[in-house]
Write a structure and sequence with these properties.
61 residues; mainly alpha; 82% helix; flat
Length: 61
């Protein structure tokens, strides 16, 4: 392995941080544009996403 290449775990961590940052920026823009009711809709949508992720993990076992 060369010194220039980052380990896979570092690349994965960077991807996760960037994804979280993008979600936060989109959420902030939606709240800024539509007000606080948009925050409730974001919460409902992200709750559904978490439930879907949990279902996919449990269906694999």
């Amino acid at each position: 392995m060369t010194e220039d290449s980052a380990p896979d775990s570092t690349r994965l961590a960077i991807r996760i941080y960037l994804a979280v940052l993008v979600v936060l920026v989109i959420a902030a823009l939606l709240v800024w544009t539509f007000g606080l009711p948009a925050l409730g809709l974001i919460g409902i949508a992200l709750t559904l996403v978490v439930f879907a992720i949990m279902l996919t993990f449990t269906s694999g076992n």
